[in-house]
From TrEMBL:
Belongs to the nitroreductase family. Residues 9-72 form the Nitroreductase domain. InterPro entries: Nitroreductase, Nitroreductase-like. One of its GO terms (molecular function) is oxidoreductase activity. It holds the Pfam family Nitroreductase. It comes from the Archaea. CDD domains: nitroreductase (cd02151). This is Nitroreductase family protein. Keywords: Oxidoreductase.
Length: 173
């Protein structure tokens, strides 16, 4: 697939088959995260792979409702950024998440971004505090999001190039 085709095919996939993601595919997705550019090349992000059912279930309560599907994901990649290493943790984490989301599409693996930073958990605490507690992570790590992964339950409709909002583009003269 060329890059535009991958971008058109990329959708948020929240329903997965009860199947293992092949190791080579997971490795490619992680390589994409590790290849993401970071400000001043500081590389503040680490990638925590969760596949234990009971931990996925706990993570599925990290938001009030929009993280429920994590319970049925085959894996989750939690991107944690060390704020002692870089102040651009939001940007660096977001780019890594986007790169992995695209690579997952290229590998025919379904994925969905779960926003953690700025959100509240099911138990109404900060989603970041909740995830840090579940995974035993120090406070100086910030968590922009989690990528849920699984073999797609059904085929999802690709975006169409005709539907992109060209009105958002302004040529300044
Ligand atoms: C920054 C960001 C945060 C998101 N957070 C969530 C989330 O917490 N839960 C969820 O189900 N989807 C989440 N999404 C997925 C969006 O809802 C989805 O990308 C959007 O509706 C467009 O649909 P598409 O990805 O299928 O094109 C998030 C996407 C982004 C980029």
């Amino acid at each position: 697939m060329d890059l535009l085709e991958i971008m058109l095919k990329r959708r948020s996939v929240r329903k997965y088959k009860d199947e293992e993601i092949p190791k080579e595919k997971l490795n490619k997705i992680l390589q994409a995260g590790l290849l993401a550019p970071t400000s001043r090349n500081r590389k503040p992000c680490s990638f925590l792979i969760v596949d234990k059912k009971e931990v996925l279930e706990k993570l599925s309560e990290s938001k009030q409702s929009s993280s429920k599907f994590l319970k049925n994901a085959n894996k989750a990649i939690v991107v944690v950024a060390n704020t002692l290493v870089s102040d651009t943790w939001i940007e660096d984490s977001s780019i890594a998440l986007a790169f992995m989301h695209l690579m997952a599409t290229e590998q025919y693996i379904g994925s969905c971004w779960v926003q953690i930073h700025l959100r509240k958990s099911k138990s109404n605490e900060s989603s970041e505090d909740y995830v840090r507690k579940v995974l035993g992570i120090d406070d100086y790590f910030r968590i922009v999001g989690i990528l849920a992964l699984g073999v797609p339950f059904h085929e999802v409709q690709a975006h169409k190039i005709e539907d992109i909002d060209k009105e958002k583009v302004h040529y300044l003269r």
